[in-house]
Amino acid sequence: MQITYVSETWPETTYEIESDRFGSYTIRADGRVIKRVTAVTEYLDKPKWGSKKLELNAIEDAKAAIARFRSPTG
């Protein structure tokens, strides 16, 4: 899933958030990768084929990470 996000903290910067069904996500600003998080490959109760819930949780985690940035580019 890929979305465009404008933070309340940095309204002048548009972020692109891309997540997958395993909980990994990538945050980009102006075409540059700002942050990339790779999900743990195996943990208790994680479906091996991925899920929509993990994908949506990754988007929320990315939004929370953007809110913690000290500058618009990380």
UniProtKB/TrEMBL annotation:
This is Uncharacterized protein.
